[in-house]
Amino acid sequence: MDWETVRLLAEASLELGRLDGAGALVPNPDLFVGMYVRQEAVLSSQIEGTQCTLEDVLRFELDASAVSEPEEIAEVVNYVGAMNYGLERLEDFPLSLRLIREIHERLMKGVRGSALTPGEFRRTQNWIGPAGGTLLNASFVPPPVPDMNDALGDLEKFLHETERLPALIHFGLVHAQFETIHPFLDGNGRIGRLLIAFLLCHRKILRRPLLYLSLYFKQHRQEYYDRLTAVRNDGQWEPWIKFFLKGVAEVSRSATSTAQAILALQQEHRQLTLQRVSNAALSQLLLDLLLQYPLISVRMVESRLNCAFVTANKLVEQFTGLGLLREITGGLRNRQYEYKPYLELFER
């Protein structure tokens, strides 16, 4: 390991520690972790060609019948479900090939690629190349099935190798190995990126899933592919690891900034609503709800806060008057509202 790698490892570890600390400072951080997960799902899916946005996903969750291109959005919603399922399973089940297959099944269920054996490792050769291309003009051909099975066995052992390598270098190697093995007929990129988050939580590097590298991979997509190709063709591991560590440091800084901004926003809006909203207790419950679901309707508030419709409507009107909510449907019926100041923290 050269000195530049040592420096990048130290920087990434420091920024990751700051992120974990920032997450611990926010009251009830589990309220907003779901937004990080959704954002990662959107960005990871965009790398694979999906065009939907974070707001599209939130609209779909609120009312699936009111969105266009529901198939694309369903892919992102599946990603969120696969992430949450995996994190929950890791509490009492080891990170293993079996768990990876289970996560893949949830990722691909009922969406594009669902006919390509979800939850099962491939039994035929696959390749990466231009649309409509063949094995002959492929840009990358993963190992054939017998070699793939051997490589997966080695990967599973390596997942639990915790003594010889610094954790972040270990995670970078796992991601590159998985993407090179390419064990599924579809969904390999998304599963490989999910693995990074699972490893961070499984090894207790982060107490909550706040770090996702899809933004970095998307912003540097060509270098991401080039670095993986150089590993596969020429065994150039160190440039890949440096690229990966830079991403961890960069995204950790950004996620820390977002967590700190959420804390400041939370404090400011709690104080504002305590002073200006007639029902102080319900106003605080609504703020908590908005951290989880920044797109709401009055009916949703009525249901989630277990209050009368008239009460929910008045509460939403007062939040709108304070500039915390903005009506986005422009209709007299079935109106939807967004918690715009909060959404802007993720959109920026």
Automatic annotation (TrEMBL):
A single MF term (Gene Ontology): ATP binding
Entry keyword set: ATP-binding, Nucleotide-binding
Domain Fido per the UniProt entry, residue ranges: 95-246
Record carries keyword ATP-binding: yes
Annotated active site: H182
Annotated positions binding ATP: E48, H182, D186, G187, N188, G189, R190, I191, G192, R193, Y224, Y225, N233
PANTHER family, A to Z: FIDO DOMAIN-CONTAINING PROTEIN, FIDO DOMAIN-CONTAINING PROTEIN DDB_G0283145
The protein, known as: Filamentation induced by cAMP protein Fic
Taxonomic lineage of the native organism: Bacteria, Pseudomonadati, Verrucomicrobiota, Spartobacteria, Chthoniobacterales
